[in-house]
Amino acid sequence: MFDHIREDVKCVFDRDPAARNIFEILTTYPGVHAIIFHRISHALWQRKLKYLARMLSTTSRFLTGIEIHPGAIIGRRFFIDHGMGVVIGETATIGDDCTLYHGVTLGGTSWQEGQRHPSLKNNVVVGAGAKILGPITLNDEVRVGSNAVVVKDVAEGTTVIGVPGRDVIRRTQQETKRHEIAEKMGFDAYGSTEDMPDPVANTMNRILDHIHLMDERMDSLCAQVTRLGGEIEGEPLPSIEDECFSTSNNAEKETSK
Predict the structure, then answer these.
(1) Do 127 and 110 meet the contact criterion of CB atoms below 8 Å apart?
(2) Choice among 118-122, 159-163, 182-186 with the minimum mean pLDDT
(3) What is the CA radius of gyration of the chain?
(4) Maximum Cα–Cα distance for the chain, whole Å?
(5) For residues 208-244, b (16+ Cβ closer than 10 Å) or e, as one string?
(6) Per-residue CA distances from 117 to 52, 71, 87, 104, 252 (Å)
(7) The Cα angle at residue 48 between residues 43 and 51, in degrees rounded to 5
(8) How far apart are CA 156 and CA 131, in angstroms?
(9) Which domains does the chain have, with CATH numbers?
(10) Three-class SS string for 71-113?
(11) In this model, does residue 158 exceed pLDDT 90?
């Protein structure tokens, strides 16, 4: 147990550049305090001293704002950064070299006996405010984005974002074109995809797709007219600038009228 605590303290230097010395870590890092309390309370839990373990766990929660059930199994070199609001349930298991940020919940989705909480393998990082719910498994090297809600297993080396959590994938060709048009308009389509439950973002995505398709058809028509000997005025289309969508600029125009 004490070897694990020593490793928990030393690993802070690798994951927090603000850490300066061991004395500072031992006296000012609530995440370290919480894991030290947990190592002791878990040892008591395993020796069937469950009430004493729960009392120590409750004391740790009062002092650090981090709630770790003494029944949770936590591996080596575990680090909780900042820590306030972290909740780790009774049947949760966490592998080696994992990191959690503040507001993370490893929670259950049922009241039935048995495995109710998540299992995190090695080198998992869970961002601030994320919720990992149910008896699911996050495999090695998984990264969970801030405020994501994960309710199903995650494959090794995957990054998960959103509500509900989904794997991060490369942009499709259509999404790349859409983004280019949005940049010309000074508009960010919320970084969303078609499956996002946001009707405004979805509507804007459809508009951007429509604009792109019309541009392609106009270019094709102009090329055909030129090929048949026709002439097309060479006056360039007006560019779309950010200020076209500026509220303050529009307000100034109205005032000048």
Answers:
(1) no
(2) 182-186
(3) 27
(4) 93
(5) bbebeeeeeeeeeeeeeeeeeeeeeeeeeeeeeeeee
(6) 23, 11, 11, 13, 57
(7) 90
(8) 18
(9) 2-167 (2.160.10.10), 173-256 (no CATH)
(10) CCEECCCCEECCCCCCEECCCCEECCCCEECCCCEEECCCCCC
(11) no
Amino acid at 203: T
Beta-bridge partners for 138? 120, 154
> What's the pLDDT band for 248 if we cut at 50, 70, 90?
very low
Instruction: State pLDDT tens for residues 171-201.
Output: 556 656 655 656 555 454 434 444 445 566 5
**DSSP alpha helices (H): ranges in the chain?**
2-10, 12-15, 22-28, 30-46, 50-64, 173-184, 199-227, 247-256
* Residue among 24, 46, 32 at smallest CA distance from 4: 32
3-class secondary structure, 218: helix
Are 106 and 89 in contact by the 8 Å Cβ rule? The answer is yes
